[in-house]
Each structure stands twice: as C-alpha cells, then as structure tokens.
Design a protein that fits this description.
The chain has about 220 residues and is an alpha+beta fold. It folds into two domains: about 5-65, Orthogonal Bundle (Arc Repressor Mutant, subunit A), CATH 1.10.10; about 70-215, no CATH class. Helices cover about 45% and strands about 20% of the residues. The chain contains ten helices and nine strands. The strands form three sheets. Strands 4-5-7-6 form a four-stranded mixed β-sheet, sandwiched between helices. Strands 1-3-2 form a three-stranded antiparallel β-sheet. It is elongated and about 65 Å long. It starts with 6 loop residues before the first helix and ends with a helix.
C-alpha cells in the first residue's frame, strides 16, 4: 500500500478506530473530487472499509484487533450517536434468550436505522429520551462501550415489542422462551424503575407477571 497516500499518512490512518472524510482529507492531502476519487481507490483496494456514508475504518486496524467483537460493539456506539447496546444482543450474551443474534442491536433517541457493512449489521431502535438510561460504560481493551444492564435490555426488548399484548401472560411465561432463572429480585426492582418512567399499561402488566415468576 506504500505510495498510495504516503507512509506517514497510512500509519496515522491505521491507528484510528474510525475516521470520516474530513480527517482523511487532512491525512491524504486532497480535497473535493480528488479526495472522493482517492477514497474510492483506497476502498476498491480493500484498504478503506466503509462503515456508513462518509465513515470508514482501515482493514489494517480491524485485522490488528484481538477482540473484534469488542471493537464492533464500540462501533455500534459510534455509528448512531447517542446509543447503547441493548435488546436481543445483550439478552443473548447474558443467556436470557436461546437464539443466537447475528447483528448488534441497540437503542437510540434518534430515528430507527440499520447499517450493513463488511464488518456486520448494526440495528438501532428508537426510545424516548426519558428511557435513555440503564446502561453502563464497560472498558474492553482501549474501547469504552455503553451497554444496557440485563434488566434494561429486557425492558427495552419488551417495551419495543409490538405483537405480544393479546396473549401477554403466555408470551411472558412461555412463548418468548425467556430464561427467567438468570433474573433476580434485584433485577426485578431495577426493571420496575423503568416501568415507572415509561408509565405504560403494558409494561406495568408485564411487571406484575414477572413478580410471580422471579422468586
């Protein structure tokens, strides 16, 4: 890749977890159509990996990551900001649902969005600003990652699920195949704090059902 945009420029790009057109302009030293052409050239050669419109990483940086899963979780926070990882992805990681998840799911106060790129699929659901809470910032290597607690991931999952109201008791107890054994009374108390914020009849009904399940 030497000669494409200069050794020093390449080294700087390879140290960035992600970058946009502006930062690549500063390093490549081109502007306008010349910059677009250079980015296209570097993308075709596999050196740039498009993450979403105008945002990239380098294949070198990605390949150097020992924990690629942690890097993708970090990217999830970045591609749709502000957001935190939640829903099926977090539930599966905690053993709360049985089926493996092929995408990283997250919630944001912005409109829903799906980003598909060579590294993965990133799905974002919208939640109101009052409920943009219940996450921790976990450090994975050099990355800080906003991730929902298992209780908040469950709340987000049920709150945003539209097709369970008619057979609510059955769905919660059996139909959704939730592993209730991993949830404690402490998790239930946390879950209820989000129910109070939401002021939702559906979530209050779910909480009452959960009270009879979680011992």
């Amino acid at each position: 890749m030497i000669g494409i945009c200069g050794i020093k420029s390449m080294e700087k790009l390879e140290n960035l977890p992600y970058f946009n057109k502006h930062s690549s302009k500063e390093l490549i030293g081109k502007t306008g159509r010349n910059l677009d052409a250079k980015i296209l050239q570097l993308t075709k050669k596999g050196y740039f990996v498009p993450l979403k419109n105008g945002v990239y990483t380098s294949s070198v940086f990605y390949n150097l990551q020992d924990n690629k899963g942690g890097y993708l979780e970090f990217l999830s926070n970045v591609l749709r900001y502000p957001s935190y990882i939640s829903l099926e992805y977090v539930l599966y990681l905690n053993g709360a649902i049985p089926d493996a998840v092929q995408s990283i799911t997250a919630v944001s106060i912005k409109t829903p969005r799906v980003y598909k790129n060579k590294l993965g699929i990133f799905i974002y659901r919208n939640i109101k600003e009052d409920l943009f809470t219940g996450f921790t910032i976990n450090k994975t290597g050099t990355f800080n990652i906003k991730t929902a607690t298992k209780s908040k991931a469950l709340f987000d999952y049920l709150y945003l699920k539209r097709d369970i109201s008619q057979n609510l008791k059955y769905e919660i107890e059996e139909g959704m195949r939730i592993n209730w054994d991993i949830f404690s009374k402490k998790d239930l108390i946390e879950f209820y704090t989000y129910c109070k914020i939401a002021n939702s009849n559906k979530m209050n009904k779910i909480y009452k059902i959960m009270q009879s399940i979680i011992i």
